[in-house]
Amino acid sequence: MKYVPDATGDRHFAKDLTTDRDAVDGLLSELDEYAVEQALQIAEGRLQEGADAEVTVVTVGPEDARDAIRKALSMGADEGVHVEDDGIHGSDAMGTSLILAKAIEKTGYDLVVTGMASTDGTMGVLPAMLAERLGLPQVTCLSAIDVADGKVTGRRDGDAASEELEATLPALVSVTDQSGEVRYPSFKGIMAAKKKPVTSLDLDDLGIEADEVGLDGAWTEVEDAAPRPARTRGTIVKDEGEGAKQLAGFLADQKFI
Amino acid sequence: MADVLVYVDHMDGAVRKPTLELLTLARRIGHPVAVHLGPGGADAAKILAEYGAVRVLTSDAAEFSDYSVVPKVDALQAAYDAVSPAAVLVPSSAEGKEIAGRLAVRIGSGIITDAVDLENGDDGPIATQSVFAAAFTTKSRVSKGTPVITVKPNSAAPEVAPAAGTVEELAVSFSEAATGTKVTVRTSRGSSGRPELTEAAIVVSGGRGVNGAENFVVIEALADSLGAAVGASRAAVDAGWYPHANQVGQTGKSVSPQLYIAAGISGAIQHRAGMQTSKTIVAINKDEEAPIFELVDYGVIGDLFDVVPALTGEVETRKS
């Protein structure tokens, strides 16, 4: 059994209006740390029952995305899969989900665990798109998760209701930051991580044509990207008994009261 | 002009405000056709028509409440097949984004998420997004397939625009995947009587400075005097002082109200990512050096336990 969390990192736009990752160290996105943590807990539970379990971490990105894999391996994941290819540059959610789905299929799995959202661009759609591509039940946005007897169950906290969900494995899961505390890598874990295998894959390995991903394959186009003007600091007053009255005056001027 | 599908977010027929905003945005690029799934379709159709829906496609089936997400994708796809729209607009709730993501894969179309504005372009709709913790504004369009666009709450002021709102039953064939994830228990979240956090015109948030669950009444009182929603920083939520459903920030809700009041919140980048697109920002903090003051239109350096109750009093006085 393998559990496959994904990870991502980034920031800035390059000249072609794609995300410029050169200037930023890759890091394991905070929301994906929770996915790694939950995958590890599920695997540990399985191992304690005498069953077999293995956690494989999958990421798509440039060379420094390996930093994210190393972090996950330090936490206790067993191996990593890194998809790296110049042709990936500029992929949008459709392209990224295709690459991830192919990588996950190639790796093999009983359960796919993802963060609930990427903190860079495709907020909240990637888990569902992966589930669609892989043909898996989605059990997503979970704040609590359990795997037993060939089923995954979890609690999904929505705006209007809390739902207990249940699906038969194999399945795709996404977890929120409410799903539990993330462990820190131990020194032993950091040293062990150096010896753990990381497989590199490119688009050819995944059977993906160059024009299916990257800028040419993108289904969306950024026509313009501009820095938002920094907010200029407004009026700041020190409260010496009159602060609330002054603030109320400001709010009245702005017609909020 | 072509038809534009609008997915309706509702509670048993009570249409939520982001959907009305979508109808207003949809009218910029075509004729809004609303898709209402679940109970209360007839009631919902009245307000949907008032805000511009020329047609309302309805479907009510047990699958929508018994199973998670996928039955709604099936229904929205059926609507897409029936209408052949120029675009599909979906509210940017967690569920809305999942529905939109799966639909985009199925119909082979590009998807744009968390749009904050929409306009008609020569080659189809152009969506504006705030990205990288609102440090950048982008304009994007879908270059392949039919645009599927999710739109953040508070992106437009809903405009009344009466239309026919003809109600039509939508025929839906549920896919094999529809029953993949069963909802075994559903517990409704009790309403606080306050506006929904992401939809509110005014948000009052408390942070570490509130210093305890029992003290959040100070924040709540100010919110109630202003008719505002209550938010909380991650520090306050992690400390167990306020529910996670009210968390504002990168791992909580992203809000963009007309007025955001931050009390006892330092303004870490994590929090700013969730509120810095608010139109007017006010902060109350004892620490003159707090990063939040870099963002404010108006700031008060002072003890929130003095300033906030006094402000509540001022608001109540000015109201009467």
From TrEMBL, chain A:
It comes from Streptomyces brevispora. Coiled coil: none annotated. Its cofactor is FAD. Keywords: Electron transport, Transport. This is Electron transfer flavoprotein subunit beta. The keyword Transport applies. Signal peptide: none annotated. The electron transfer flavoprotein serves as a specific electron acceptor for other dehydrogenases. It transfers the electrons to the main respiratory chain via ETF-ubiquinone oxidoreductase (ETF dehydrogenase). Pfam families: ETF (PF01012). Heterodimer of an alpha and a beta subunit. Residues 16-210 form the Electron transfer flavoprotein alpha/beta-subunit N-terminal domain. InterPro entries: ETF_a/b_N (IPR014730), ETF_b (IPR012255), ETF_beta_N (IPR033948), Rossmann-like_a/b/a_fold (IPR014729). Belongs to the ETF beta-subunit/FixA family.
UniProtKB/TrEMBL annotation, chain B:
Its cofactor is FAD. Residues 4-183 form the Electron transfer flavoprotein alpha/beta-subunit N-terminal domain. InterPro entries: DHS-like_NAD/FAD-binding_dom, ETF_a/b_N, ETF_a/FixB, ETF_asu_C, ETF_asu_C_CS, Rossmann-like_a/b/a_fold. GO terms for biological process: fatty acid beta-oxidation using acyl-CoA dehydrogenase. The keyword Membrane does not apply. Binds 1 FAD per dimer. Keywords: Electron transport, FAD, Flavoprotein, Transport. PANTHER family: ELECTRON TRANSFER FLAVOPROTEIN ALPHA, ELECTRON TRANSFER FLAVOPROTEIN SUBUNIT ALPHA, MITOCHONDRIAL. The electron transfer flavoprotein serves as a specific electron acceptor for other dehydrogenases. It transfers the electrons to the main respiratory chain via ETF-ubiquinone oxidoreductase (ETF dehydrogenase). Heterodimer of an alpha and a beta subunit. This is Electron transfer flavoprotein alpha subunit apoprotein.
